[in-house]
Amino acid sequence: MKPKLTEKGITYKTISRVGTILLTIFVFFDACAYAYAQEPAAVAAVAAVAADDAMEAPAAVAADDALEAPTADDELTMTAVKEAKAAKAASSDITTLFYSLPKQQNNTELLTDASNKLLFNHLAIGIGIGTEGASLDLALPIGHYVQLRAGMSYLPSIKLTKHFDASQTGSAGVSNFDSITSILHDITGLQFDEQIDMKATTQLWNGKILVDVFPFKKKNWFFSAGLYFGPKQVLHIENAAEDMGTLIALSTFNNIYNKVEDAIANDNPAQIFGDISLTPQMMDQIMSIGRLGIAVGTYKQTTESHQAGDIYNMVPDENGMIKLDIRSNVVRPYVGFGYRTAISRDKRSFFSVDAGILCWGTLKMITHDGTNLIKEVDVTNPMLKQYTDVVNHMKVYPAINIRFTRQIF
Predict the structure, then answer these.
(1) Which of 54, 122, 155, 390: CA 20 to 30 A from 140?
(2) 3-class secondary structure for the chain?
C-alpha cells in the first residue's frame, strides 16, 4: 500500500487513473481529427477504435476501483459497477453517432450518383412488325420510370387494281357508248375500252419519337405518347398502262370537243386538222356527248369555273393519264399503351406488344387537276365512292405492333 499524499485521502493510484482517462480522451479526439483531415471514409473505423479505447478505459478503471474498494462496503461496490455500465453505454452511443454520420453521407452520395447514371445509361435496340410495317427503334432511359424511344417504320408497297366503267363518261350525262366508240375509232383509229383499270399503290413509311412511361413497380405495363412524321402522300392511284389507248382516245376526243365548242361560240366551222372541218351534224353530235372522262359526281359549291350541281368528270391530263393521291398531315400525333416482359435470364432481352392510334387528321383525295374530291365533289361513282367514304372517316390509323428488344449496354 502506497502512502497517502494529502490529508483528504487522494492516493497515488487515484491520480494515476485520472491521468489515464484524460490521456485516452486526448488520443481519441486526436485520432478523429487526423482521420477527417486525411480521408472521410476512414472516420468510421478510427472513431470506432478510439471510442472502444475510451469505453474500455473508464470501464476498467471503474472495475478496478470496485475491486480494490473495501470488501466490507458492498453499497459502494455496487455503485461503482453501475457507474461503469453507464460509462460503457454512453461510449457506445458516441461510437454509433460518429460511425453513422459519414455512412449516411456516403449513402446519399451513392444514391445521387445512381440517379445521375439513370439518364441515358442504357441503350436498347428493337425490331418489330405490325400494321405500320417493319420497324426499327432505339430506346434510352430517363430516370426510373421513363424512356425515350426513336425509330422508323416502313410498310412495303401494296398494289391494288380497281375497274371503272368508262361507258358513262359524257359530261352531258349521255351514256351512248357505241356511238362514242365509233366516232373515236373513226378519228383516232384506237379501240375504246369500256373499262379503265386504276392501280393503287401505298406509300407508308414513318419516323417516330415517343416517350414511354412505366407507372407500375414491375415495369411491365407502359403508356406511350409522341409524334410520327412522314410524307404527305400515303396512297397513289393511276391508270394501268394497258388502258393508255383508251385514255389517249378520250384526250383526242376532248381536244376535238374544245375546238367545236370554240367554233360554235365564234360562229365558225370547226377546223380539226388543217383544212379538215366537221359538218354541222357532226358538231351537234359531238356537243351532245360532252367532254369524256370518268364520271365522278357533281360539284358541291359554285366557283368561277362551275356551278353547284354541275357534273364533274375526271378527264385525262396532257399525257393521257388519270391520277389520284390520298394525302395526310406530315406530323401525326400518337397515343397508346403496351406490355413488356423479359425473355432472357440476364433480363436484357424483352418481348413487348403495344397498341395505339395514329392521328392522321382529315385526309384529302386530290386529282391530277387539283380537285379535292372529299371537300369539293359529291361523289356518285360507285367505285370512287367506296374510296371517298373510307378516306372521309379514316382520321385515325390503328397501330398494333409486336417488338423484340435487346439492351446493348
Answers:
(1) 155
(2) CCCCCCCCCCCHHHHHHHHHHHHHHHHHHHHHHHHHHHCHHHHHHHHHHHHHHHHHHHHHHHHHHHHHCCCCCHHHHHHHHHHHHHHHHHHHHHHHHHHHHHHHHHHHHHHHHHHHHCECCCCEEEEEEECCEEEEEEEEEECCCEEEEEEEEEECCCEEEEEEECCCCECCCCCCHHHHHHHHHHHHCCCCCCEEEEEEEECEEEEEEEEEECCCCCCCEEEEEEEEECCCEEEEEEECHHHHHHHHHHHHHHHHHHHHHHHHHHCCCCEEECCEECCHHHHHHHHHHCCECEEEEEECCCCCCCCCCCEEEECCCCCCCCEEEEECCCEEEEEEEEEEEECCCCCCEEEEEEEEEEECCCCEEEECCCCEHHHHEEECCHHHHHHHHHHHHCCEEEEEEEEEEEECC
Set of cell numbers at residue 160: 391494288
